[in-house]
Write a structure and sequence with these properties.
two-stranded antiparallel sheet, about 90 residues, mainly alpha, single chain
Amino acid sequence: MNNDIDMAITLDTFRPYYLQNFCNLRFKQSATPIDYESIVDDPYYHNIVDYRLVVLRANRIGSCTKSIDEIRAVLAMLEEELGNGV
């Protein structure tokens, strides 16, 4: 569900803004502002960035941490089952 929400937000909000205000887009790497000063002063851009950070902190970090903990527990059980546990 989080992936669907993230994708909808990205397609509806972030992508149009970036396509209008950035060039040299390199997927998952970088983008160059068309007019750096206007972006620095744009409260909408700052809201987009702040909102994205809030969403990531609320939804991604916690779920990733929980997944990592569960993966470690499964690995420990596998090692114990295989006789490699300490």
